[in-house]
Amino acid sequence: GGKAKRAVVDGFCKDGQGPQIVNHYSIFCISDVRLFWLLRYSRFVYFHPAWRQAYPFKDNRRFIEMRVLKAGLVLALMAYPLSAPAFADDRATVQSFYDFLSNAGSKQHAQKFNSNVTKDWKSIGDYSGKAKAAGAFIGQLGFFAKLIPNLKWNVEEMIVAGDKIIVRGKATGTPKGPLFGVDGKGRSFTIMSIDIHTLKGGKIATSYHVEDWAGALRQLKGQ
User: pTM surpassing 0.70?
Assistant: First the structure.
């Protein structure tokens, strides 16, 4: 019965007994949960006599498939539920970055941004070796708030990858004066941005970013 078979499985784990001949097999015994991770399946397997007695050959295939499925589900449940809430918090932290971009003249959003980045946060937009700190970034957005009062920076897509969050953004605005030397004469722009934020301890530590400012200037020129 099930108890007898379980006893054999437990005995296998404790005694270290394994298949006498294993063709294209990799087996790991996880003693805490008494599961077997079976890889590289082959139908030509010759089990230890104790195994053959508990699991006739005709039942081996189903037994192996069920054990693999059960082990995979257990490992998945162990890995993901604990990290999901942190991902949700990280998303909210990164979202506050774009809320500030869309409200560049707001002191409240500036304070929120400042509280969500590390003290040594860096904004990196090229390979020159130069980086912008939080204070300089806030100052730059103050300039944009005056030049482009209706600047909006929407998050179109946000992808979590370990301690990094990748964001595809969409920026729109109508400059009131020359932008990078180009007078749009009332024209607006819509551009894409790609950012990679690295988080440490729930705060943004670095932000690599690329914006299509060349495309914005073409639009302002009417091209």
Answer: no
